[in-house]
Each structure stands twice: as C-alpha cells, then as structure tokens.
Amino acid sequence: MIAIQSRDNPLVKRIHALSTSGRERRKTGLTVLDGAHLMAAALDAGIVFTQIVVSDTGLAREEHQALIARVGAQCPVACLPDPLFAHVSAVESPSGLLALMAMPALDVLPAMVNGSLIVLDAVQDAGNLGTLLRTASAAGIRLALLTEGCAQAWSPRVLRAGMGAHFQMQVLEHVDVETALAGYTGRIAATVLSADSQSLFALDLAGPTAWLFGAEGQGLSDSLKNLATTHVHIPMPGRLESLNVAAAAAICLFEQVRQNG
Amino acid sequence: MIAIQSRDNPLVKRIHALSTSGRERRKTGLTVLDGAHLMAAALDAGIVFTQIVVSDTGLAREEHQALIARVGAQCPVACLPDPLFAHVSAVESPSGLLALMAMPALDVLPAMVNGSLIVLDAVQDAGNLGTLLRTASAAGIRLALLTEGCAQAWSPRVLRAGMGAHFQMQVLEHVDVETALAGYTGRIAATVLSADSQSLFALDLAGPTAWLFGAEGQGLSDSLKNLATTHVHIPMPGRLESLNVAAAAAICLFEQVRQNG
To answer: What is the three-class DSSP state of A239?
Structure first.
C-alpha cells in the first residue's frame, strides 16, 4: 500500500478526472466504483479492479479491510487523507473506499432480442437512471437499451444509484431502438398520460414485454411512441397526477412480477 | 420590477441564504420555490408569495410572464442576470424563476389519525423524500408523518422533487410516531426483507393502512418495526434483491390503489 499526500500526485489527478469527466472515462475506458457494497457486487460478477483507493478513515473499517484482502496483492492500493479522498471521489458522501475498473467493451445487441426488457429514452438524471436499472434488475429484467440522450450508464453516480444492477444485466448504450426491436415478438408498452390508453391494472401481462420509459418532462420521443403496441396509464386516485419516471417504472415492472409470480 | 446586478444586494444575500441554509429557513419561516410548475401548484393551493425572482433568460419565457401576471402587482418582482440567478438558486438546473413563500405554521397532528398514510423514518436524502411525497400524493394519500431524522420537508430540493405534493397533503415533521398512531385502527405495515413476512401481493389491502418506510441502508428504527402489525416483503425475482426506498413505496402504495380501484 502506498500513501499519497498531494493533489499533484499523478494518480490523484487521474482518479479525479475519471470521477468528474465523462470524456476522460470514454478516452481511457475506465470508471470509478464508490463503496464496499458496489465493489463487492462487482467482484461477485467477476470484475477485475486495476486500482483501489482508501481514505485514512476508510481504512479503519473492517468491511473495507476484508474487501482489500479479498482483492489480493495483484491490485495496487493507495491510501489518501480524508480531504484528498473527498477530492477524488465523484459522489456526495464518499464512503472512504473506491476502485477503478475497465468499463465493459461496447456490448453488441443480441441477434434476437426477446424476453422482457426496458428501453430508457433520454433519461439524463444519473440518480433516476441508476434507480431504473436497479428496479429493473430486482424485477428480473436482464436487458436495458438506452438511447443516445441518456446519461453515461457507467458513470460513478449512475453506478452508485444502480447498487450493483450493472453487473446483473446487460446495459446497452446509444441504441437505435427501432432497429433493435424490429423483430420483437412481445408487447411493446409505453406509459402515457392520455385517458384513451389502457389501465396498467387491466392489462394482461403474460409473456414478454418491452417497457419504454422516457425522460421526465419531455416524455417519450414520437418515434418510440409510434413503436409501442400498447399505450398504458397508471391509475392515480390522488389530485396530483404525476409520478417520477423511476416510480412509474417500479409500479409497471412489479405489476408484471405480480401477474407472473 | 427592479433589476439587481450585485451579489452584495441584501435581497440576493437573503435568497441565497434561504436556498442554502435550513437554519435560515427555520429562523425566518420562509422557503424557496423553484420553477413555474411548482409555483403554479402553490398558487392553485392558495399559497401567497412574498417575492418573485426571475433571470434575464427566464423573463423571456411566456410561461414565466403568465405566472408573474397571475400573481399580480402586490408581489414584488426582481430581475437578475443569469449567473446571479444561478447563485441564489438552490437547485442544480435553475429554471429561471423562483418565489419566496412562508412555510406553513407547524401543523398539529389531527386528534384522530385515520385513513391511509405514510410514515417516513429518517429519510435524509432530499430527492427520495420529495419523490416519496409525490408518489403518495398521486396514490391518493393525504397525510405524511416524518420522524426527527428526516430532511427538512420544505427545503427547496424536497419541494422540487415533490412537484406539488406538499400542497395536496398534510406533511407533519418531527412526529412522535408511537404517540401519533396510538389509537390507529387500521393496519400498520412495515416493509422488511425477511422471508417470514407476508408477500405484498398476497396481502388483502382493503381498509386503511399506515405504511412505514425507513431510510435506505439502516431501515426502520426498532421502535417503528415493533409498532407494525404487518411485516410485508416485495417479491423480487431478480438476482439483485434491492430496491430504492422510493421505488419500494411506489410498488406498495400502487398495489393498494390496484386492490381498491
């Protein structure tokens, strides 16, 4: 383990850049995992770390020591004073432990898309995007297709909100959804507010469904709306007829779980 | 309308303090609403603004001009250059329009708590707290009880995530939940991960329910867990058995909507 004290240290500069710049992540192919929980989920999925960084305070925690021991001697470990660790960390409440990992090579769309999946259209908020992946993964969904306008799926903030979902499902970015779903034989469902849509709770959700979720505010793009074979709304008895996109997705995906359980 | 150019202007200093300091909000009894959508929801609910602030760019938008016209001449309006507006705004992507309003006087617990409600225990994340209120309001819930450790319910970030929920339901803070629910005759349901709990989808949700939701990570406090008459889990077929608290609440509250719809 090496101890680093200075902001001018090249490793410190590199991690700071990876934490704060999507461009730097794309250029290097590396990203930053924050926290023992996320790191353990990555290790469980066979991910290899290229660097571990721990804060002085973080090093005192047994959970962190166990994780460092689990990774073993082949991965370099750097120890930073707490303020310097906060400087390199990408998240609001740094956990005191982080790791660098190579982002998965750009995944190729399966020749045939089948089974249930989610399509996320221009979801720019990192927290929402990560929560959507986490919820989908808990519901047993194994494939997420992200359109051009989405936040970077492997950014530290999306990873943190995903809580390990990235390692349990295939997440494809910059997807041309019309092409991807051209031969899809399941239902393609879009949530909309219009009353001429079907109630989620009246829908028979047997068989696979591709769920389309758009960014809040603007909603789904017209081309995706036209792709949908089913327009569905969530009945809202309250006076505030409005749901966060991640909440709406949770309701839809777990209605599917309920029906097929 | 007055134009302001300087960070040293007393009004600019005051709004910046209200946007960034919970202590300042408590001291003055004022809070900040960001954006036309939230301001319109407040006006619909009869809220009176004490000050409107608009950015140069924000002033050009028709939606903003209409809102300023709706409020009328009795509310002072200040116009700020965009960078100065960003300085006083509490949110990440300022909309270009904000208003000051008096926070509601500390509400008194109804003599008899009945009907369905949510109890939020030590939910510190502003986005989660606001989303929980928004989801509950959409589900027709009219009362939220917040324990001591929750984020300030009327902070600008919680208000923004709530998207108007605050004006549609009673939100009580610093609540002693054991006392509040002492005479409650409905079901008191806590979501837990343990398998000896009932599946949400096997539960009969007729009649009122008090839903207890805890902070992520630590979960519900023991005293609240003991208060629950029903322990419930959400079946998760995926390998990642983990949900964001706001996603879990959405699933529970809309299962109740489904059953009683």
So the answer is: coil
Tokens of B176: 């002693």
pLDDT one-digit tens code per residue, B112-130:
777 999 999 999 999 999 9
A107 confidence band (pLDDT: 50, 70, 90): low
Distance from the A253 Cα atom to the nearest Cα atom in chain B, whole angstroms: 9
Residue carrying the six token digits 């709990």: B197
- Whether A182 and A155 have beta carbons less than 8 Å apart is answered as no
Alpha carbon distance B226, B239 (integer Å): 29
Q: In what order do the strands lie in the sheet with A49-55?
A: A2-3, A77-80, A49-55, A97-102, A30-34
8 Å CB contact of A134 and B250: no
CA distance B247 to A66: 31
Mean pLDDT of chain B: 93
B17 — contact with chain A (CB < 8 Å)? no
Q: What end-to-end distance do the CA atoms of chain B give, in Å?
A: 49
- Scan for tokens 């982002």, then name that residue: A103
Is residue A67 within 8 A of residue A97, CB to CB? The reply is: yes
Which residue in the block uniquely carries the two structure tokens 């934490």? A19
Give mean pLDDT, residues B73-83.
Answer: 94
Query: Domains (ranges, CATH) in chain B?
Result: 2-102 (3.30.1330.30), 117-260 (3.40.1280.10)
The amino acid occupying position B67 is L
Percentages of chain A per state (helix, strand, coil), in multiples of 5: 40, 20, 40
Neighbouring CB atoms inside 10 A of B114's CB total 13
CB contact under 8 A, A247 and B135: yes
Q: How far apart are CA B61 and CA A213, in angstroms?
A: 28
Determine contact, residues A193/A241, Cβ cutoff 8 Å: yes
